[in-house]
Amino acid sequence: MKFQKYLSSLKGKRVAVIGAGISNTPLIDALLAAGIDTTICDRQTHDKIGDAINRFSGLAAQIKLGDDYLEDLEADVIFRTPGLMPWSDELREAAFRGAVLTSEMEVFFDVCPCKTIAVTGSDGKTTTTSIIAELLRKEGRNVHIGGNIGAPLLCKADGMHPDDIAVVELSSFQLITMKKSPDVAVVTNISPNHLDVHRDVDEYVEAKRNIYTHQSSAGRAVFNHDNEVTCSFAGTAAGEVLFFSRREKVRDGAYLDCGQIYESINGHNEIIVSASDILLPGVHNAENYMAAFSAVRGLAGRASMLETARTFCGVPHRIELVGEFRGARYYNDSIASSPSRTIAGLRAFDQKVILIAGGKDKGVGFDELGAEIVRRVRTLVLTGLTVEKIRNAVVNTPGFTDMPEIITCDDFKDAVLTAARTAGNGDIVLLSPACTSFDRFRNFEERGNTFKEIVRELT
After folding, report:
1. Which CB contacts under 8 angstroms, 24+ apart, belong to 441-444?
2. pLDDT tens-digit series, residues 398-419
3. Please, which pLDDT band fits residue 221 given cuts at 50, 70 and 90?
4. Is the pLDDT score of 192 beyond 80?
5. pTM for the model
6. Which residues lie below 8 Å from residue 115, measured CB to CB, with a gap of 6+?
7. What confidence score (pLDDT) does residue 52 get?
8. CATH of 2-102, one of 2.170.150.70, 1.10.4080.10, 3.10.450.50, 3.40.50.720
9. What pLDDT does residue 79 have?
10. Fold match flag (2-102 vs 106-311)
């Protein structure tokens, strides 16, 4: 009952919870039920948050909303929302006054009674996390999935058993202040990302590194051998290191060779599955499976691996087939909020596609994406704040003439309908924006769902 003991340790202290969203709601309920002096801070106004705040008001919580929500932040313990970086002026001042800065996920790692597997990376986190959870469920294990996906886990910790497994996806925003690492850490890849929030690339990389740096010699770290940054992590890992690669054989881990995925244990190689067995399209999904297979070594058998590969149909908004209209297939890859993610999406298909892209800039360049669009896109439909940046990256690609055709649309729905008008039998229409959704939508899920609704109207 470590979580209850943790709550008891907070009695007599002032606790501030920053962010009144879904991930913190169970925590706030637990704090108030335990009689903890709790202040809820949120940038949104009362009108936007709605009924949740009214309920907390009735439970004797102190509430600070609006632009001044962090002003005079007096607390002994502060639960940081992942979206607020620890070097913000208000948090630094609070820490200088002696406040302990933590988060829902950090406390979970302290009180979790079972084995933990965590996944991070610039791309592929959610799919890899979901594959790991599916593999373990096939083995009959009781799996708790959380972090960036699933339900908040902290308040469920006391109901977990030692033989359960918690599988979590962690972002750089969550990892940046982590002081404890999981039993098994997976880093899918690292490329420049979230530079609209992180101060520089080095800070982003160091945040990702936190997923394994606090492991003991009993830990396991799984790294992408084909990625220069993640490959360099191996020399600083304290425990077992496994690699995965689609380019070359690795001595310990998993690799792709001639269409087969092999497991390698001290150089002894055996086929796990054929890449053609994997239901999800694209070589990047073969990478996700190799990472997952390495993470569950000793926990899942070959039969579960093959069954999962053949039956797991993926996660919504990740190259999700959503409909067919006049012979063209429509795929929702709204999760692709970075150029590298869109590049992976384009490479998932063996033909040129009609691409819908654009949104809010993350401070990452589009030159590499521009070259990939020239190679793999027949028609490019651009919308959102980054229209000109992506367009310039395409037209300035060496060898560009007049292909792909580039069409710009002010309205998102118009962009989808425009793509539909250009699509014929056998074509693929792919929403893979390469940008965040925040110019028009609350998140990538809302953007993806809007796309699906428009496609449903067509079909």
Report:
1. 444/317, 444/334, 444/335, 444/337
2. 989 889 999 999 999 999 999 9
3. very high
4. no
5. 0.82
6. 164, 165, 166, 183, 184
7. 65
8. 3.40.50.720
9. 96
10. no
CATH superfamily for 320-458 is Mur ligase, C-terminal domain (3.90.190.20)
Task: Mention the CATH class of domain 106-311.
Answer: alpha beta
Sketch the domain layout of the chain as residue ranges. Answer: 2-102, 106-311, 320-458
Is residue 54 over pLDDT 80? no
SS3 of the chain: the string is CHHHHHHHHCCCCEEEEECCCCCCHHHHHHHHHCCCEEEEEECCCHHHHCHHHHHHHHCCCEEEECCCCCCCCCCCEEECCCCCCCCCHHHHHHHHCCCEEECHHHHHHHHCCCEEEEEECCCCHHHHHHHHHHHHHHCCCCEEEEECCCCCCHHHHHHCCCCCEEEEECCHHHHCCCCCCCCEEEECCCCCCCCCCCCCHHHHHHHHHHHHHCCCCCCEEEEECCCHHHHHHHHHCCCEEEEEECCCCCCCEEEEECCEEEEEECCEEEEEEEHHHCCCCCHHHHHHHHHHHHHCCCCCCHHHHHHHHHHCCCCCCCCEEEEEECCEEEEECCCCCCHHHHHHHHHCCCCCEEEEECCECCCCCCHHHHHHHHHHEEEEEECCCCHHHHHHHHHCCCCCCCCCEEEECCCHHHHHHHHHHHCCCCCEEEECCCCECCCCCCCHHHHHHHHHHHHHHHC
Is it the case that residue 441 has pLDDT exceeding 70?
A: yes
> Which tens digit of pLDDT belongs to each residue from 293-332?
999 999 999 999 999 999 998 888 989 889 999 999 999 9
Per-residue confidence band for 58, with pLDDT thresholds at 50, 70 and 90? low
Give the integer Cα–Cα distance in Å for 134 and 82.
26
Mean pLDDT of 337-351: 92
pLDDT given at position 47: 73
For the segment 30-38, the average pLDDT, to the nearest whole number, is 95
Cβ contact 181:214 at 8 Å: yes
For the ranges 282-286, 352-356, 375-379, the lowest mean pLDDT is seen at 282-286
